[in-house]
């Protein structure tokens, strides 16, 4: 039995058109042979898209942590090298963090993105500072657990365990940005006497930290 209600016919056609359009525009694999724009790479010809465009294999490698923080990060979005073309235009970025026992990802913020971290190996003590109330939220995360850090808030990850730890982080923007608190204060030419006045840290200590972190002034 056919339904000749014109309203239902129009609704069905509109819904079908919407689904088709949505499917066609649901991704834009980046064409890495072309120049990127502020919003990402132009779309690759759909005929040249393969499943490998949606797979990133660099996270299978352990990251070199031979540095003062005993921690390192490998980031992935559509414009990093090696690039992850399948993320192009999706407003996402991901990262792998390797942290040795006693190591840390220092206090930092991402101005443009919320971060979520999944502990893939070991354990990580993580936390963030509330912007409104200055409350510190800290939790030791074990393998398989997840924590979220709201956009723009200062946060950190520390390996307080006895084993190598790995965290996989995702970001709600392809370019989350990052500002390390220590480098923002002591890693530049911010005059030491002004740092002292604005932080209440003794000027001699300020100069010591500047020397340690590559700052001047």
UniProtKB/TrEMBL annotation:
Belongs to the germin family. Oxalate binds at residues 110, 115. The keyword Transmembrane does not apply. Residues 1-23 form the signal peptide. SMART domains: Cupin_1. Residues 57-207 form the Cupin type-1 domain. Keywords: Apoplast, Disulfide bond, Glycoprotein, Manganese, Metal-binding, Receptor, Secreted, Signal. The keyword Secreted applies. CDD domains: cupin_OxOx (cd02241). This is Germin-like protein. Pfam families: Cupin_1 (PF00190). GO terms for molecular function: manganese ion binding. Disulfide bonds join 28-43. It comes from the Eukaryota.
């Amino acid at each position: 039995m056919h339904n000749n209600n014109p309203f239902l016919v129009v609704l069905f056609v509109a819904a079908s058109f919407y689904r088709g359009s949505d499917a066609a525009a649901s991704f834009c694999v980046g064409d890495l042979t072309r120049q990127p724009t502020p919003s990402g790479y132009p779309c690759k010809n759909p005929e040249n898209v393969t499943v490998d465009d949606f797979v990133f294999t660099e996270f299978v490698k352990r990251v070199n942590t031979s540095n003062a923080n005993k921690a390192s990060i490998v980031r992935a979005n559509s414009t990093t090298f090696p690039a992850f073309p399948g993320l192009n235009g999706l407003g996402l970025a991901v990262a792998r963090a390797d942290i040795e026992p006693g190591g840390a990802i220092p206090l930092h913020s991402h101005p443009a993105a919320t971060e979520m971290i999944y502990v893939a190996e070991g354990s990580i003590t993580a936390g963030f500072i509330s912007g409104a109330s200055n409350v510190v939220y800290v939790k030791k995360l074990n393998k398989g657990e997840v924590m979220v850090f709201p956009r723009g808030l200062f946060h950190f990850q520390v390996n307080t365990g006895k084993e190598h730890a790995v965290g996989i982080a995702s970001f709600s923007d392809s370019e989350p940005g990052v500002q390390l608190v220590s480098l923002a204060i002591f890693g530049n030419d911010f005059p030491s006497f002004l740092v002292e006045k604005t932080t209440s840290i003794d000027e001699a200590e300020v100069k010591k930290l500047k020397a340690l972190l590559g700052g001047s002034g």
